[in-house]
Write a structure and sequence with these properties.
This protein is an alpha+beta fold and 93 residues long. It contains 2 helices and 4 strands. Pfam families: YchJ_M-like (PF17775).
Length: 93
């Protein structure tokens, strides 16, 4: 989760796509250049340990856009595929 947040903050679309499950990954991902991610707050986690195949991360990602502050609050599901964690989907809270 933290590495994906960093990729969004840096605008690293290649890494975001690499860590997104192919079944749910969009065909084209365009990031908003005016959105600046400022910090990540992990609210809770479930599973996701070394012996788990699935995990859930609830987070708040804080950003600034057009001189205003905002928060993306999401509960994300991850799956382990070939030893790597991949983002499957999320529900915005």
């Amino acid at each position: 989760m933290r590495s994906r947040y960093s990729a969004f903050a840096l605008g690293d679309v290649d890494y975001i796509n690499l860590t997104w499950h192919p079944d749910t990954r969009p065909a084209d991902l365009a990031l908003d250049a005016d959105q600046r991610w400022t910090h990540l707050e992990i609210v809770s986690t479930q599973g996701g340990g070394p012996f788990h195949a699935k995990g859930v991360v609830e987070f708040r990602a804080h950003y600034r856009q057009n001189r205003q502050r905002g928060v993306l609050h999401e509960r994300s599901q991850f799956v382990r595929d070939g030893g790597r964690w991949l983002y499957l989907d999320g529900v915005i809270a």
